[in-house]
Amino acid sequence: MTMKTKYYHVLNYGCQMNESDSEHYAGQLEEMGYAPTATPEEADVVVINTCCVRESAELRILGKIGEMKRVKARHPGQVLCVAGCMAQKDGEALLKKYPQIDLLLGTSYVNSFRKLFETYLGDREKGAYTSLEVQSSEFEGTRVRESGFSAWIPIMYGCNNFCTYCIVPYVRGRERSRSIDNILEEVEKAVARGYTEITLLGQNVDSYGKDFLRDGALDKLGATDATSVQEPFAALLRAVDRVPGLQRVHFMTSHPRDMSEEVIRTVAEGTHLCEQFHVALQSGSDRVLKEMNRGYTGARFLELVRLIRRYIPDASITTDIIVGFPGETEEDFEATCRLVEEARFDAAYTFLYSPRSGTPAARRKDQVPDAVKHARLQRLMDIQNRISLSIHEGWRGKTVEVMAEGPTEKDSRIWSGRTRGNKLVLWPQGEGTEGGEGCLRPVVPGQLVHVLITNPQTWLLKGRRVD
Ligand code: SAH
Ligand code: SF4
Ligand code: F3S
């Protein structure tokens, strides 16, 4: 007798950490014999992995959960699982408002999803099932990765920083690092399966392993004495760099307060460690930085940028900036603009401040009016776009090493890939391309190719293959 195949669909929202978690949900569902579907309509189980970092994200997700009511009505027996940060934050209130939810899972159930899902299925007649307690988690099991050559590797979960605008520490819990052996084992397995690029993930990668140092759990860092592991993150980078078969190692996010010279030196001296730093500035005003509880000043941030460029002159440096934090004056905002001019980021992700209830900044009375926030965001984006274009102009006529990703959606004759600095590069492949510049040599996703940059733009670099 053959069993009817069951299907799953995972919808992901939010940051890379969530993408990584979603791959893990998919992996466990496949272990249980489920196969993926392209849309939620055909699926027997739908997992919505949620984000609550800004209100805009929440509104989109709530719309999707709302839509699932109709989808479920046409597919009796379909299981709707809502997981991740918003589930953690809103808990039972979500269930009350959206009775179509069957399973509500907090952020630390990624590793035990299979067990919980099976318990739920066995007990289904009892109704909706909730698991929200924050627990520690060590990686087990498999993942189904989106990409065939590039793998997310979480090195730690949670955050201890409590920046006053941010909800993440409340929904992701305290920092918990994975042991070095556990991480290396996952990296080696990924390489054995053909992955050549990895990105080490954490809310603050520079505090990797500090929990082990504090608790005296030196064995988790592969050490017996504390002096040998003064800088656990740098030690991890060096260990990962030695894994045979890996081509590229990225990491994110770095915290300007904690990022050390040792980490920069390690990247400079490494072979596969990519010269890319995502260091979140958030604001260029010392007063606002203090009120955000960030632990550095604008001057210290610039010193860090200079230090990176001293070791690695063409390092790619990107950042996150919030506009319209409560009490942000015109002078504060101008300080941010000045700092952005001086730092010359390759790219900046700019956000309108969004009050998150439960965080200290959301309780403040001096919220900045929406119109002011929008106008400032536009000014800041104009400045950054001009800088990005001028940095990219500097790549004109240079040849860069690109890891090929695949054909673009718009035109399959145009391929995209990334530089070591994670810049998007486009080039023509095959016959019949515009200007006949298409490279006739074959290419597969994950392959390293060389592209001569002929047309730099604000968001990407265009060129032709020269290898
Ligand atoms: N841990 C990472 C990123 C966390 S969230 C870091 O500290 O760099 C990603 C970005 O979202 C943050 O860097 C911040 O710029 C932005 N962000 C967080 N809370 C926000 C809020 N309430 N409103 C607007 N942007 C926010
Ligand atoms: Fe949020 Fe700050 Fe932690 Fe980043 S470091 S996740 S911005 S609290
Ligand atoms: Fe990431 Fe959003 Fe959660 S940014 S940590 S998915 S709140």
Keywords:
467 residues; alpha/beta; 6-stranded parallel beta sheet; 19 strands; 14 helices; 5-stranded mixed beta barrel; globular; binds FE3-S4 cluster; 34% helix; binds iron/sulfur cluster; binds S-adenosyl-L-homocysteine
Main beta-sheet annotation: 6 strands, parallel
Write down the Rg: 23 Å
The first-to-last residue Cα distance is 54 Å
Enumerate the spans where pLDDT stays under 50 for 5 or more consecutive residues: none
Average of per-residue pLDDT values: 93
- Report the principal-axis shape: globular
Number of E-state strands: 19
- How many helices does DSSP assign? 14
The secondary-structure class comes to alpha/beta
Proportion of β residues? 15-25%
- Name the helicity range: 25-40%
Strand order of the largest sheet: 2-1-3-4-5-6
Provide the list of bound ligands, each named once: S-adenosyl-L-homocysteine, iron/sulfur cluster, FE3-S4 cluster
